[in-house]
Amino acid sequence: MGLLSDPVRRRALARLVLRLNAPLCVLSYVAGIAWFLALVFPPLTQRTYMSENAMGSTMVEEQFAGGDRARAFARDFAAHRKKSGALPVAWLERTMRSVGLEVYTQSFSRKLPFPDETHERYMVSGTNVYGILRAPRAASTESLVLTVPCGSDSTNSQAVGLLLALAAHFRGQIYWAKDIVFLVTEHDLLGTEAWLEAYHDVNVTGMQSSPLQGRAGAIQAAVALELSSDVVTSLDVAVEGLNGQLPNLDLLNLFQTFCQKGGLLCTLQGKGLQTLLLMVLRQASGRPHGSHGLFLRYRVEALTLRGINSFRQYKYDLVAVGKALEGMFRKLNHLLERLHQSFFLYLLPGLSRFVSIGLYMPAVGFLLLVLGLKALELWMQLHEAGMGLEEPGGAPGPSVPLPPSQGVGLASLVAPLLISQAMGLALYVLPVLGQHVATQHFPVAEAEAVVLTLLAIYAAGLALPHNTHRPLSYRVVSTQAPDRGWMALKLVALIYLALQLGCIALTNFSLGFLLATTMVPTAALAKPHGPRTLYAALLVLTSPAATLLGSLFLWRELQEAPLSLAEGWQLFLAALAQGVLEHHTYGALLFPLLSLGLYPCWLLFWNVLFWK
Amino acid sequence: MAAAMPLALLVLLLLGPGGWCLAEPPRDSLREELVITPLPSGDVAATFQFRTRWDSELQREGVSHYRLFPKALGQLISKYSLRELHLSFTQGFWRTRYWGPPFLQAPSVWINLGRSSVMSSQGSSAPLSTSSTPPTQSLPLPPSNPWVWPMTLTTTFCAMLCCRGRWSAPKTSPPGRSSCPVVPRASLISFHLLQAGLSVLLKADRLFHTSYHSQAVHIRPVCRNARCTSISWELRQTLSVVFDAFITGQGKKDWSLFRMFSRTLTEPCPLASESRVYVDITTYNQDNETLEVHPPPTTTYQDVILGTRKTYAIYDLLDTAMINNSRNLNIQLKWKRPPENEAPPVPFLHAQRYVSGYGLQKGELSTLLYNTHPYRAFPVLLLDTVPWYLRLYVHTLTITSKGKENKPSYIHYQPAQDRLQPHLLEMLIQLPANSVTKVSIQFERALLKWTEYTPDPNHGFYVSPSVLSALVPSMVAAKPVDWEESPLFNSLFPVSDGSNYFVRLYTEPLLVNLPTPDFSMPYNVICLTCTVVAVCYGSFYNLLTRTFHIEEPRTGGLAKRLANLIRRARGVPPL
């Protein structure tokens, strides 16, 4: 509608944007942050409510009374486990068969790209055991999953005990309409990933596993259970899955209703803003917080229940937990359709309150507006500079001026863009590929080698584009407009950053918001004039790696276990290694996103800062 | 009593009070039998069969007098010149791997219709051969309209049979035969039942607490005598149930009629010419018998059933001594040694089917065919009907056995037509001995029109089971038996020759999620479209009707603007 708008008025608007750019940017940024902080308070949070009709009431009578049985199973399991040193597969098979399940095992093996020092594993091989309760008079088209991940240490045996006791109880009932799979996986999430990949007959992560003998149709929902004591003071629920995916809110509501019905104390960590920030940090990390997180990729709604045993007086035994689970499974059994009624994108400032996507997106929108405003300002400055060259004060018409100078400006951008992207690619590929070379030449272990190479390439990126753009830019920059080069580069970088952050925020709001909070102000500030050292320091402090480090400190601060600097650094190195590993083992996208997307983009700003 | 029974079976046993002509021998007869088979997994299967045979050529003679044969079905046969009808309603899934091959397997709903105008009279004695003889001439019959059969059957059986699109015929079956192999989801409404003889045991609340429940009607012509000069019509009504050892037996694996059905047998059916109970007492282990039956059977019957030698104890209800002793018959099975918790023996042929992949765009249908025979390979005919909204990519069809490509000796593929007919894929595959063969084909999920979604679209859409037909090599050679004299469970599908036996298996039905819109979306789309149209129209109209003139650059401050405003209000040209 360019014809219709009044060119004079448009120019006035442009002048307004140019003149008030800095205050508008500040205002927008502050508004974004304030909006986010306000998400904790009632007008923006709503009470959760059950949307799914089939799970509307909690009118099921829980009859589970197998507390003693669960404890006995747990004791046996722990004993057998200690004796064999691994998952007691034969015992599990026998026990599951004796409670009347169809039992299958699945063996898997995986060689990690480099040794995992946090979990102390490299060549992993294990066996998953699962039993299927076949629903009577149903044709195995749908199923529910109850899973217990078993790590290398002998925790979680109470969860196995409860799983077996529940299986025995469920087997005696005639109301099941969906098959129920009771799954015990070895090696935590690796086992779960192997089982899920085999169940869906795909190979996403290069896992080697034996094919599954028994299947139970489309999985509708899954619950993962982690318990390591006979009594619990509360049940903690984890919802954040791989790449920040969340289960349907109704599943959480279901859990909460049964907690209320049974008088169980159910929690999310923290209180108010603390909870919200913790959730944002957990979701932003993109790692599965519990084995439920891997189910979400296959569109199976899932959550993890974690038994917490603290010093609180009032404790619940396994019967209470079992009853809550029984209630949940009976309700899920009633489902006619997949869970789809409620929200898939939400934030939780508490277990009974949520913020829906419509209300939290403005926060990140305001932050991205800063980039937009800055880009607009640059575009206009470039435009005016071009107009000034061709015909000063001439007739307005956007397509007439500066075809030659614009072409030159774009050509000068190719080199920095390519170089920074190449750095990103090197950051993504080299650490894992070059670990053997590194271990041959330096006295480090493989895991260390990967992390140090990562940091080295990251730091090298700061030097490289800065040195190489100079000969190119000397050649192209015209004397009349010395600023055109960096302005064009910054314009491209701003748009690139805004696009990336926008896309990230759509799929994983927390990550997008976190990165926007840190990267946006310095991205807006970066220019080759003024206090360059200050800008450089700020830019380094807000780089993706520094954001990660900062998040770690914030995370521990929120958990009320503050870190010292040295600890923080160690944790940072471990987190880097975990990030790379999770990309290779589960297909987490944070590492490629940072190395191939945001790091090159950030390098462009670094380039702008040191433009000559 | 009968009115109080809500049991969903056998409306057909309601007998008309027709004349009982004693002068000539009755041209129709009824046999009933119950087979109780302890399954390898510890569960117990009970199979009822009621067979009515009528020596009458329904299609030729204008028959109006019905006695034992139900009139509704008889009229159906004569009106549509029906050649065969097989219809079964099943809840549950026969788990071949754990329960062994079934006597009568059926998927959830299975309808099979054969029709011809003139019965060929030179049919041989094998009952299946009548249906495989090509019709000599076919009449223009109403089933060219795809809804006639479902509607007719729906009214007769009080069941909902909705088949999307046209029914299709596999190429291996003769022409003139329409079949809808499986309707994956159908609901059955209600039936009534006469209570006498074996059907006393059919008590609804027990039958619906089983883990498998299948009822079927089979109508077909059979030869009246050995030379097959004329035909008779046979109606079999069957009911198979599997009782769950865990739920019904509270963990104990001892069974009795009372425990299974909460009834005992008191009298034979007065109309039946034969009324028997067979109990499978085959000893699986050679050392000593593990199963004990009480009361001890008077006679036993030995034969080769489904490739293995079996022994059955026979209780004849027409034998007056059997009932009169204690006024009722409560057959009990006791395990002398409880069966161990070990994996049960696996049948030679079983199969598994699943959808692989994730996401809502693509997927893969995989069927695993297991041949566990140690040294014999055998061919299997695999029939797949896949709804059109899964768009199959036939070039991705791969069949692998033992890591090598397995080339099927015969493939027939009939592509789907959108909204009209499903894909039909038939293959004859040789299964190597002791192997797993994987048949997989990729598909893309189609977007349906938004009115084509079911009321519960997020439940997913069913894909019917694959049908496997095979001649499985026997362990023991079977000798041909006199078909009319042998027990009913042995004579529904005959053994083709001594060394093989025929098995038809159905895999699991599948549930596939299609990309489903949010159904509040149309409203949003309407709102959005209206807004866009309004904005575009408004500005376009503006553009067309506005006149343009060059405006001098504005000079002067606030005072002049105010003055102009006032002038404009007064209608005087501005300064």
Structure description:
The complex is a heterodimer of chains A (612) and B (575). Chain A has 612 residues and is an alpha/beta fold. Chain A is built from 19 helices and twelve strands. In chain A, the strands form two sheets. In chain A, strands 6-2-3-5-4-7-10-8-9 form a nine-stranded mixed beta sheet, sandwiched between helices. A three-stranded antiparallel beta sheet of chain A has the order 1-12-11. In chain A, strand 8, helix 7 (249-262) and strand 9 form a beta-alpha-beta unit. In chain A, helix 7 (249-262) crosses helix 9 (318-333), helix 11 packs across helix 14 (484-507) and helix 13 packs across helix 18. The radius of gyration of chain A is 28 Å and the shape is globular. With 575 residues, chain B is α+β, with helices and mostly antiparallel strands. Helix content of chain B is 15%, strand content 33%. The longest helix of chain B is centred in the C-terminal third of the chain and has 25 residues, at 521-545. The radius of gyration of chain B is 32 Å and the shape is elongated. The model of chain B is unreliable at 1-24, 108-147, 162-182 and 186-192 (pLDDT under 50). Chains A and B meet through helix 4 of A and helix 6, strand 16, strand 27 and helix 9 of B.
